[in-house]
Amino acid sequence: MNLHLISCVLVSILVTHGTCDSLFPLAHRVSLAVPLQYTDGFIGRAFLMDYTANQVEPGFRVALTAEANQGRYSCSLQVFLGDVMVWSSGHYSNFYTFDVCVLELTQDGDLQLKGPKDRVGWRTGTSRQGVERLQILRTGNLVLVDVLNRIKWQSFNFPTDVMLWGQGLDVSTWLTSFPRNSTSFYTFEIRHDRVALYLNSGKLKYSYWEFKPSKNRNITFVELGSKGLELLNDKHKKIAQIASWKVQPMRFLALGNRTGNLGL
Description:
mainly beta, 6-stranded mixed sheet, 4-stranded antiparallel sheet, globular
C-alpha cells in the first residue's frame, strides 16, 4: 500500500496558519494534492487537529484524506482514535476528485470539501449560522460552534459504523457498515422494544441478533457508557445494559464491516 502522510508540522509549514491544535478557525483552507495517475492502494492524509487527554490512552485526530477507490480518488474528512477510523464524511457517499482535495471553513461558516475549480462535493450546510470554528472535543465529536460555544453541527448526529463513548443513538438513527463492492450491508438499529442487528440485501432485511429489555419497557435511545451500552427511557433512566466483560473503560462500539459482528 502506498501510504502518504503529512504530519502536523509539515501542514503548518505548507499552509498559512496551519495547526494541529483542537480547532480549525473560520476562513481557513487546507489543500491536499491528488496524484495525476491512479495508483491502487494510495492513501494521502493530512492530520489537521488532535485532542489528547493524557499520554496513556490514544487521542483523537482529524484528517483530510485522499485515497484510491475503484479507479478514482475519493476525498473525505475523517476522525481517528489512535489508528482506528471512527468517523468519515464519505461513509455513505463518496466524493470523487482529481488533482486536489480541499477542506475549507468558509467565511460565512460552511464547512466544505472541494475539488478543482472549487467544485463542492460535501458540505455541512451551516452558512450564516454564526459558526466561528471547527473543533474536536474530548469525546471525539467533531463540531462546528459559534462564539458562545453553541454547537451548530456535529459528527455525532451522523453515525457511521462506530459509536463513541458518550455518544447517543435514538430510534431514528443507526450504525451502518461500509457496503464495500456489494449491495449487502449490516445495520445496528434501535427500536422501541429492542436493539437488533440486520443483514440488508437489496430490498430484503434479515435480523440475526437482538436484545430486549425485561418487562417490555420502551427504549428511547442508547448511549455508550464506561461499562457498556446503556438502554435508556424517555426520562434518561437506564432500563437495561449490555455490559462489557473487560475491566477497562469503553472507548467505542463497532459494527464489523465484513462479519456484521458488534463489538465493545
